[in-house]
What does this fold into?
Amino acid sequence: MLRQIAAVTAFNIRGISQRLVASSVIVVGIMCVVGVLVSVLTMAGSLADTLLAAGRAERAIVLRVGANSENASTLSVDAAATIANAPGVARTADGDPAATADMLVSVNFNRKSNGSLAALAVRGVSELGVRPEVELVEGRLFSPGLREVIVGRNAQRAFAGLEIGDRVALRDSEWTVVGVYRSGDVAESGMITDAATLLSAYQRAVVNSVTVRLESPESFDAFKTALTTNPSLSVDVFREPEYFAQQTEDLSSLFFFITYIVTGIMGAGALVGAINTMYSAVSTRTLEIATLRAIGFGASGVVVSVLAEAVLLALLGAFGGAAISWLLFSGDTISLGGGQGSLVTELTITSTTLVTGVVAAAAAGFLGGLFPAVRAARLPVATALRAT
It folds into this structure.
């Protein structure tokens, strides 16, 4: 039986070239579906990974009670000082609290890709050493008291006017770009400067958040208890990984619709196209199939041959769609705009994403060929011969 199945399948696949136009319908349809699926999954995964990479187990972030993000939070300078000196906070080499009171503002820049305006976050920090992952790769650090900024590498790649020496407009003055940094996380999507200078320029007396480096991850509970039970404070305390995981929830909801609804509709269209094409292919080979059945080939060989053709065409489309996505998107930088700043990240197509696309294509090809295969196997030999 296996020899029969192999012979019929090989014979069937060799005949694909004679049905090139019809076969191309399946290949192109699956190619589009897989291309969209891989691209969307890559964008969602890369953006989420960029957010999650910012979380460190030894760090905690403090926001005003009820605020679900830094942008929605305000803390007085006095409150920030109380937080920095709470139990469980580590100390720097100089003996100061390892804490940074951060202020966030946004400024519009033109995207390099199309010239459209999008907001970038400018973060004022009181202690840059709390985030050791921020590594200067070009230029120098900003000087406290001077209107200078350093820019994230991803932000520089995506937006114009952020080269060293360029001047950016913040509030009512110009600030000079003096350095470029990388961090491998969401911080690389914006700019960093001195918090006191930024507060002065914007004439503010409040910061958005306080981030501290703890003595150890186990110090978090004592740190949180000390702050939430302090009657002079009204704050929420989060482990950094927990905070950034919450920020990815909205992002996941956005891409859920695109990934599963849009590609689902496209996949259904490709599946219908595959079924119609395979039905057409089977109907044009009714005599051929009937002859094979008449000389002793079993129904199982017919079923496998039709399914093999459908799956093979689907896989060709899958590899084509994955290859196009890889060429167009892998290593590219994209930005997802937001009211307080864009999230900029480098797209990375993972093997898991590629496998997901190939599996989805194989499933579509299998389902597309299943019904025509069963119909061909069930068609009586005499009826098929008379029909021709």
User: Anything to note?
Assistant: The chain has a mean pLDDT of 80. The chain has two domains: 2-52+247-387, 66-233.
